Here is the input.
Amino acid sequence: MSGKVEVCIRGAGIVGGSLALALARQGLRVELVGPLAAPAAAGAADVRAYALNAASVGLLQALRVWDALPADAATPVRRMQIEGDEAGARLAFSAWQQRVGELAWIVDAAALEAALAEALRYAPHVERRAEARPGPAPALTAVCEGRASASRDALGVPMAQHDYGHRAIAARLVADRPHQGTARQWFRAPDVLALLPFDRPQPGRSYGLVWSLPDAEAAALLALDEAAFVERLQAACGEAAGGLALASPRQSWPLSLARAERWCGEGWVLLGDAAHRVHPLAGQGLNLGLADVEALARVLAGREPWRSPGDARLLRRFARERSGPTRAMAGVTDGLLQLFAHPHPAVRLLRNQGLRWVDRLGPAKRWLADQALDGR
Here is the structure.
């Protein structure tokens, strides 16, 4: 790539790589700094899977990444079953009821990163570097480094954070009967358990597990051997998905709610987990980050000819547009977690009855599903 760099993107994960492709399509000269993916722990398999909504899939299609994924790396969700912590307290959604092809897609994280890396190899105007080149600063630095962003800290931007005292446990599972494109989720006190339909390692019978529990309970589960862990997991979800077996190592990470005090300034902007984090119970973390990418790319494409990409007023347009949706999603996920984690019998009765009411109210259920489908 020749010419002066106009945008430096720090952080080359899915959000940073997608932003580089989106800005390169506008003819901006982009420097993408860092490895495409965070290095995995030595000897650890990557068990991450993302739930992507229609808007995120549309962005990846426009960037010519989605269609490059292997066939078994993206699994459509046709149905969703949500269970409370009382018998009969459930909420069910289907793509047929919503008049869409699928409610979401479950995507292998490593496969998506590999498809992005391949697209970036051939992207004009993008230079990949391990470190930013010396010399004059570019017009805009976009910080996409994730939750532990050194660049955000160097800018002196405080990150308001609430630690839940919970950990997420993730793994790949294989069931003894087909998943039929059904995602299953249990909301209980104090845990939230999700089985996400997947086609790796075994097509039609695999799941991605995401199990959120208090720290002490998560540590106790992680200390169990595989057989004992599966026994506890099977007891937690019953026979809804059939008999389950571990098909990967278990991994875990702490959960928190966080939001940067400022998202932009003259010559810089924050995106994705560097700007905001939510609880994974709704599977919206990456969707919010990709919505940031789409919004920033659109704002930069529509700027006045005399404005620099790093103009503070221009970047505030982006921040204003994204502030409301990210606050709303943080409120929804935090509110759901607090509601279903509360041990009081009256709260338990209210939340389980609420699931039954919403399931019977067609308009309310369709509205909720629409928010998830179009959530940005």
In short: Confidence is low (pLDDT under 50) at residues 38-43.
